[in-house]
């Protein structure tokens, strides 16, 4: 099992905006696309992929099951619907989007349904998103050690999630960082700006390179072709020990997303 380290996020993008973003990204060499049922853009993503001409075998597509589809009799049918929209027979990675405690479906039920989707060949790998340590432990207990490929979590220089990331590393679960730029807030950070100037890089490249060097996967999004191209260059940027230490000091528990009823009690 492996999760590619660099992909394209599509959160908050729909219609022509997401079609153009995905097509531009694929032209630039991206091969990982991350979407979700709740983004309401799976059909647009599917259209963009089809029009790009990139063979399915070269792509890594992730989608996420929304909370209303967690029940055992709903998860697989909802995934089949997502696959139709995406114009593919399978996704490479399928995630539970939020733990949603108290929504009426127990963790064991939706994790078993997720494992069933994999057994049916509808997804190559399974994982979770926005799970804390305790819920990740429970998920592992249901599907078995080594089955959870990733936990996709909000993570940025302002929210470094050290307890959770250490636990995931110990379990062999890849960390996928979303919102690595903290809704753009880190782009104005003076420390990151200094580091960027030192390397003749952009601040976005520095933040993404920081996450990559920690061994995390990243999925930044953009509607601008120049930003999509620029973000890719983060893969070639090497930060030194001093840079990494300075970024470590930016931790401020700066969480941007914690929807009531969906989020767990954070570590």
Biggest β-sheet: strands ordered side by side in the sheet: 1-2-3-4-5-6-7-8
Order of helices and strands: EHEHEHEHEHEHEHHEHH
Average pLDDT, all residues: 97
- The tally of helices reads 10
Q: What is the tally of beta strands?
A: 8
Termini separation comes to 26 Å
Low-pLDDT residue spans: none
Rg from C-alpha positions? 18 Å
β-strand amount = 5-15%
Please outline the major beta sheet: 8 strands, parallel
Explain what you see.
Helix 1 (15-28) packs parallel to helix 2 and helix 4 crosses helix 5. The protein has 10 helices and 8 strands. The chain has helices at 15-28, 42-52, 75-86, 107-119, 133-143, 162-171, 190-199, 203-213, 225-232, 241-248; strands spanning 8-9, 32-34, 60-65, 91-96, 123-129, 148-154, 174-178, 217-218. It is globular, with a radius of gyration of 18 Å. It is of the alpha/beta class and 267 residues long. The protein is 40% helix and 14% strand. The two termini are 26 Å apart.
